[in-house]
Amino acid sequence: MKILVCISNVPDTTSKITFSADNRSFNQTGIQYIINPYDEIALARALDLAEGGKGTVTVISVGEASIDPTIRKALAAGADDAVRIDAAPKDARFVAKQIAHYAKDQGYDLILTGRESIDYNGAQVAAILGELLALPSISIAKKIDLTDNTLTVEREIEGGKEVLSLPTPAVIGTAEGVAIAKIPNMRGIMSARTKPLTVLAAEEISSLSEIIAYETPAPRGKVTLVDPGNVSQLVDLLHTQAKVI
Amino acid sequence: MSLLVYVENTDGKFKKSAFEVVSYAKAIAALTNNTVTALSIGHVAAEELTKLQKYGAEKIISADSNQLSNFINRAYAHIIADVAKQQGAQVIILSNSFSGKGLAPRVATKLDAALADGAISLPEIQGDNWTLTKSAFSAKAFAKLSLQAPIKVISLNPNAFEVQENEVSAQLETYESQIPAADLGVLIKEVVRATDKVSLPEAEIVVSAGRGLKGPENWGMIEELADVLGAATACSKPVSDADWRPHSEHVGQTGIVVSPNLYIAIGISGAIQHLAGVSSSKTIVVINKDPEAPFFKVADYGIVGDAFEIVPQLITALKAYKGQ
């Protein structure tokens, strides 16, 4: 069984997000980069499914050489090999088209992505890959099991879950619950240095959309503190001032 | 030209998001001198379908067959793209719900359309170039996204656009067409839905609690408070990580991002990852015994006190208010 896991290089979750003076680009100074947390979950599940010689796990990412340390972290966690498509990722469509171009002749049984990246939050790559590769896709999976060639997947829905059954090959976007991210051990970190990381040239793809500016949320006014001995005043304020109840 | 809106239902009843997307489409139609066509997939009775008129749908198309009784994103995307072509729709609007996230990218790819994922504003329109606001960096920022293709797909965040009445009279049509077999290759084995609970992403009021509650056995008062308010319950990441509550309740940067009218945080200190998930709430109330909790810095109202004393009092005060 061949599994492909798509990973994205994103700012650490504790990062304070700021922008350039013209608000056109993200300020990268002092930012630590990590594997997108949802992609780490995807990778952990892939490694579990492939464990004991049942399959191989390849990670793929679209980015310039600066993301190699993030890819090495995925190799340290246990992936067998890695592919980097050498281009600055413009948007989800660009990334998905690059990955689809690579994956179309490779015979992967399962392609996993995180449900969304925590920087641009598109939640698009799994579904676009499904469309481009003519495969079924599930965008927000909470659980993935595989028996022979049949996947059983729990999908998040409003107020509940759906249990789906589908054949491989398929593309699935993973959410919390699928697995717990694996922390690389020393042996993994050492072996990651020599695992294959193939760099491929990117396809030319024209963009259909562009982020033209960023804004940071307006700060809220000062908090109004209510005396803990007079809780009903909070109810009054929510009714008469905030008008939310 | 018309705008095509895909409206979601649960067991034959339209979701709140259905009325939101029709209201939103009607507002865009007014800006661009267009009409609104709504597309419903699955079994929805005529009486329910005609409710969409109230929000401005001038044409309502129903795609109803046994094969479509459950959501299969590939089959639904096929129908939406097919109807968009038939109707000559250049703008397709749907909700950025859990299902919408699996649908919008497929529809956009089929139509070679530009996609605004999770829009929270009406578009600024300059010819073929539409600019919309969406949240980025897990709600730590906003991005202005410019769509530059003739065909556009917009997925609208739940609670981002208020339902607006705009009564018109609509014609009802049915969509009949063969769905390619490959698009139906997913079998739905089971649907589990808590019918008595308010859905978190769509909730107007959210009651959320954190580690300050000390253990899962203490959630009774949180559920009671949510009940009194007609609210959804939520929690912080440490709480779902400890299995005190399900992951589906985890609000934050790596969980669900919510934008309710009222967010009540109880015993949650307010780590940056949690704040990212709630920053677009209209009003935030924080109850925490630590006056230095970072959450107070982004709150509108706060009570410094012990949750185990404050919450029961709040329930009593709210019951008195509701009883008036």
From TrEMBL, chain A:
UniProt KW Calcium keyword: no
InterPro entries tied to this protein: ETF_a/b_N, ETF_b, ETF_beta_N, Rossmann-like_a/b/a_fold
Keywords linked to the UniProt accession: Electron transport, Transport
Gene3D superfamilies per record: HUPs
Protein's UniProt keywords contain Electron transport: yes
SMART domains: ETF (SM00893)
Domain called Electron transfer flavoprotein alpha/beta-subunit N-terminal: residue spans: 23-209
Gene Ontology molecular function terms on file: electron transfer activity
PANTHER family per record: ELECTRON TRANSFER FLAVOPROTEIN BETA-SUBUNIT
Stated name of the protein: Electron transfer flavoprotein subunit beta/FixA family protein
Organism classification: Bacteria, Pseudomonadati, Bacteroidota, Sphingobacteriia, Sphingobacteriales
UniProtKB/TrEMBL annotation, chain B:
Binding site residues for FAD: 211, 267-274, 288
Chain ranges of the Electron transfer flavoprotein alpha/beta-subunit N-terminal domain: 3-188
Binding note for cofactor: Binds 1 FAD per dimer.
Keyword DNA-binding in record: no
MF terms (GO), sorted A to Z: electron transfer activity; flavin adenine dinucleotide binding
Entry cofactors: FAD
InterPro entries: DHS-like_NAD/FAD-binding_dom, ETF_a/b_N, ETF_a/FixB, ETF_asu_C, Rossmann-like_a/b/a_fold
Keywords assigned by UniProt, alphabetized: Electron transport, FAD, Flavoprotein, Transport
Superkingdom field: Bacteria
Pfam families: ETF, ETF_alpha
Transmembrane stretches, start-end: none
Entry's Gene Ontology BP terms: fatty acid beta-oxidation using acyl-CoA dehydrogenase
Similarity comment text for this entry: Belongs to the ETF alpha-subunit/FixB family.
The name this protein goes by in its record: Electron transfer flavoprotein subunit alpha/FixB family protein
